[in-house]
Amino acid sequence: MTGPEILDISRDAILTLLKVASPMMIVGLVVGVAISLLQALTQIQEQTLAFVPKILLMFLALVLMLPFMSDALGAYMARVAARIAAGG
């Protein structure tokens, strides 16, 4: 396996990682900013107020986005398996 092939596989892996992780990270970011804004406006500094909604909404996003995530990972595995089967 040559250097450019390794770079192609690595680039594909990083892009797949970003596709799989992005929905969860975006939901966590949006919920965190919204809760922080709410806490700043109301001056309520309760830590569980930020933690519980973020966990619940991230779990909901995981359940909703799981088919997309599994398809992306399956497609990546198929591409890697095809390269292995092709001998490089």
Automatic annotation (TrEMBL):
Role in flagellar biosynthesis. Belongs to the FliQ/MopD/SpaQ family. It comes from Labrys wisconsinensis. InterPro entries: Bac_export_3, FliQ. It is found in: Cell membrane; Bacterial flagellum basal body. Its main location: membrane. Keywords: Bacterial flagellum, Cell membrane, Cell projection, Cilium, Flagellum, Membrane, Transmembrane, Transmembrane helix. Pfam families: Bac_export_3. This is Flagellar biosynthetic protein FliQ. It is a multi-pass membrane protein. The chain crosses the membrane at residues 20-41, 48-69.
